[in-house]
Amino acid sequence: MSKNERLFAVSDADMIEHADTVKATLPEDIGDFTAFDNTLSAEYPATIGTAIDNVLAVKSDQVIIDEQVEKTQNLTEAMGACTNAFRTIAFFARKAFDGNVAVQNQFGLNDIRKVRNNQAKMVLFMDSLAETAQKYQAELVAAGCNEAIITSLPDKADALRQANMEQEKFKKDRGLYTQERVEKLNELYKLLVPISEIAQIIYSDDPARLECYLLPKPKGSVDAPDDLVTS
Fold it and tell me: Does residue 217 contact residue 10 with C-beta atoms inside 8 Å?
């Protein structure tokens, strides 16, 4: 079984909600469960509560997705700032070195199409552009370029590098977060399974009480309670 594979077939929210119900209800019934299985002590509800807290301490999938969207947006904005800066520098490079293709190409005019859709390559491109623009700063300024555009190029390159690094790191961290959350959810589920199994025996004639402890069924499921118990 994969480390990211859940042992249950319902949503995380449904499983946690069920665990909360069991945690709240079990203390008044724990004597019945202990009488059936003396390994289930009075501390069992607290053990379930700790397992719930452990799950909630890990970032949920939705939070992870929201954070990744933020990282992507930051990277998109950094790429956009670099692209706009290049377009400005390219305009004045053509103006300052009209007819001199060799110098124009030092500004990356012949390379931009190869890198503009690749963040890692764009970082290196911007580093080179910053060096070239500084080298020809006097000519660019004389042609009408705002000096602040030239001096901002290293910062734009650094911002892009940082945004790209953060997104790549988050992609790797996301797998770790997911794995940890699934592990904690599965630990919680394993605590709830014996409660569900025992409840089906000791509360077979008490449907209302039994319902409190039965593991939640997947939507559309028509399985009998016993079919929901996974060993």
Answer: yes
pTM: 0.65
Per-residue pLDDT of the chain (231 residues; tens, 9 = 90+): 556 799 999 999 999 999 999 999 999 999 999 999 999 999 999 999 999 999 999 887 788 888 889 999 999 999 999 999 999 999 999 999 999 999 999 999 999 999 989 999 999 999 999 999 999 999 999 999 999 999 999 999 999 999 999 998 888 888 888 889 999 999 999 999 999 999 999 999 999 999 999 999 887 655 544 444 443
Residue ranges covered by each domain of the chain = 12-59+180-228, 63-172
Q: Write the DSSP symbol of residue 227.
A: G
Distances from the Cα of 54 to the Cαs of 3, 10, 20, 149, in angstroms?
17, 19, 13, 50
CA–CA dist 172, 166 (Å, integer): 10
Tell me the one-letter amino acid at 29: D
Structure tokens at 170: 């988050």
Q: How far lies 58's CA from each of 10, 117, 129, 134, in Å?
A: 19, 34, 42, 47
CA-CA distance, 74 to 77, in Å (whole number)?
5
